[in-house]
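Why does residue order matter? Because the sequence determines the fold. Keep that principle in mind as you read this record.
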Amino acid sequence: MTDRTTYTTLTGLRRRGWTDTMVRSLLGEPDVQGRSPRLWSLAPVRLYLLARVEAVERTEEFARCARAPGGSRSAAAASGARARRQAVLTAIRAEPIAVPRLPLADLERRAVRHRRLLGARGAGEMTPDLLVCWQVNYLRQALKRYEALLDGLFGDVGLAEAGRLLDRRLYEAIAGAYPELAEECRRRVAAGESAGGFGRAPARGGGGGDQGVPQRGP
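Structure:
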């Protein structure tokens, strides 16, 4: 996956074969925009995350627009929101998900430390279910960079659908990397839980989100 701090300009996109219409239809708003830092230039800065650009370039929607004549591209611009939504969904389905591979004891320590940083208090009893929940939370947070795939849907009606698809792919990747966490991942997918529920205890039991951390060193 390309570094999420690498950007390209509109000129760079044109060199890669993008037209302005394709940029509007498939990428939407720039990821970074504002005034140029060069005082002598009044041109606005418009930067696009290269990782998001590359993800869209792997989709059939991009290939179809690249092959289309000018008239078809104009038609695509009229339905830009729909095309952008489809391109983002396709990119999410195609994006390889790299889950950090850690020894289970190390993962447990990191999850507990992370939960402590989130402000866990109290002396509630630690349960296996609660610890599994924290481990899944930690790994889901470690994959937060993939949320940049949603950037093309700011204000778009398809954002919720794309977010659910991304969460499902991320939880499935976690389950594949850590079979011990698969049941909790499947539960979250079935319940439609997203990163917005980060820090909550599993519904099947194990106490609330303010349970105390286990009394074992991180």
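Confidence is low (pLDDT under 50) at residues 37-41, 196-218.
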